[in-house]
Amino acid sequence: MRPYTAILIVPTGVGAAIGGYAGDAIPVARTLAQVCDRLITHPNVLNGASLYWNIPNAFYVEGYGLDKFAAGDWGLRPVRNNKVGLLLDQGIEPDLLLRHLQAADAARATLGLTITDYVITDAPLNVELRTSASGASWGTIGNPDSLLRGAEKLIQKTGAEAIAVVARFPDDIDEDAAQNYLQGKGVDTIAGAEAVISHLLVRHLQIPCAHSPALASTPPYPDLSPRSAAEELGYTFLPSVLVGLSRAPQFIVEKQLFISCQDEIWANQIDAAIVPANACGSSALLSLSQSHCQIITVKDNQTQIQVPAQLLGIKSIQVNSYLEAVGVLVALKAGINPNALVNN
């Protein structure tokens, strides 16, 4: 019998009550990974700044790659270890740049990760932050060509198989929005722009990529929410990105008609997808809803957007919490109709 495979999606930059902060969906991922054979998820779920957790049967897949995978265009090939290249924004100040290089050295020496030499972009990336009318965050890159040239240089000159990119983010973040986020009540104002950067790299390079922001240090915040506290543990958010990319599956961008590896994962092998109940409009979920995949929507994980499954004509099992979702997954994996476990 083939492995039972689930996807956990928490959209980036939409203020998800669980997974909208600093790695606060990691407990959900750890739990779901116990009841399925393979769990596919993305950096927004697994990145916790200096905190991370090795989940052996979880696959770290960037959002654009996840969309292509869910559509059946790309497959996933598990790896033991990627050579991770470090791409640094020329706009990062020398002291802050040194902090990131030291973080990479620490990951290499302490965790045994394979990190190649670093490359600095040939121009500042000039990231700007934006907020949509719905309240979701996004952003723009002033010099995307410089980003792509730097990434290509990493691949050609250092043999990088995955890329961790660190861009300097602006200091003039909306104060009210930042305070709300730190108190565990608002949207991560930089997450949407981070997704734009990683999407561009994965679309162009077709290898695993993830982003870590470079931000100026700030004084301690007295009323910090535990959900945001991971960002206060160090000077960089790089460690969790490097750990994730070290084992991120490589993308299979061309289907082989006759030669395939038993470990390869394709969209038609996905058994279930777990998403917030009012954030069902992602490309990945729309693709999966057209297959045999069982959609499970979680009511408790509220977001700033209102796109429920019913509005899109998506059939789903709605549950109140991720704890309830775990029970549904156990039943489905056992071949039991979840309705048989409730008093109707």
Automatic annotation (TrEMBL):
The organism sits in which domain of life?
Answer: Bacteria
Q: Which organism is it from?
A: Nostoc piscinale CENA21
Q: Which Pfam families match?
A: DUF3326
User: Which InterPro entries does this entry report, sorted A to Z?
Assistant: DUF3326 (IPR021763)
Designated name of the protein: Uncharacterized protein
